[in-house]
Write a structure and sequence with these properties.
- With about 160 residues, the protein is of the alpha+beta class.
- It has helices spanning about 20-30, 40-50, 95-110, 125-135; strands spanning about 10-15, 50-60, 65-75, 75-85, 115-120, 135-145, 150-159.
- A seven-stranded mixed sheet has the order 1-2-3-4-5-7-6, with helices on both faces.
- The longest helix has 15 residues, at about 95-110.
- It is globular.
- The protein binds coenzyme A (COA).
- Coenzyme A binds near residues 86 and 126.
Length: about 160
């Protein structure tokens, strides 16, 4: 029987190149729509991107979840984007999604991001509840963001 790790036994660490295949597998198991999934080559590019910060939840041999943020320089200053978070279905409900998201948000804040944004599938109630509990507010809906008929909600937070 597969054992479920307790959240306290799980550490959050920066993602590294050797994690790519495992993170792509977590995304494949986590999302219904192709447009939401980061595949291995996209993850590889993200991990090499100096504007990205990615973290992994590790509780045994394989990563249990991951999250990534991006910075963006705008005329109004440095903005941050929570770009993705996914927890393996077998490890959900243990607080890992919250810990990973908080880790990315504090890394973005440390880099100097004052305004934060994210996009989430408009019917993803679990993720929206998580983001609202972290201070994000619905800003606008974006039609066909992930694919035709798969709309997104953009949420924002002043950090
Ligand atoms: C969204 C996701 C990352 C949450 O990860 P998780 O580790 O299960 O979440 P946590 O245990 O940290 O719970 C965080 C919050 O999420 C919400 N949540 C978690 N499980 C929930 C459930 N079954 N029903 C309703 N809300 C739930 C709650 O607001 C919870 O806060 P609480 O602990 O104060 O109750 C996870 O469900 C997932 O990977 N989903 C598929 C991928 C995805 O949708 N990613 C986000 C889109 S960008």
């Amino acid at each position: 029987m597969k054992s479920t790790p307790r959240s306290q036994q799980v550490s959050i660490r920066p993602a590294r190149a050797g994690d790519v295949a495992a993170l792509a597998e977590i995304d494949r198991r986590s999302f219904r729509h192709e447009g939401e999934i980061f595949n291995a080559s996209r993850i590889r590019r993200l991990l090499a991107n100096p504007r990205a910060m990615a973290f992994v939840a590790e509780g045994g041999k394989a990563p249990l979840g991951w999250a990534v943020g991006l910075t963006r320089t705008t005329a109004g200053g440095l903005h941050g984007r929570l770009y993705g978070v996914a927890v393996d279905p077998a490890a959900r409900g243990l607080g890992l999604g919250r810990r990973l998201t908080e880790k990315v948000l504090s890394a973005l804040a440390r880099r100097g991001c004052r305004r934060l944004a994210l996009e989430v599938r408009i019917d993803n109630e679990v993720a929206i509840a998580l983001y609202q509990s972290l201070g994000f507010e619905p800003a606008e809906s974006i039609r066909d963001y992930y694919a035709r008929g798969v709309h997104a909600l953009r949420m924002r937070r002043e950090s």
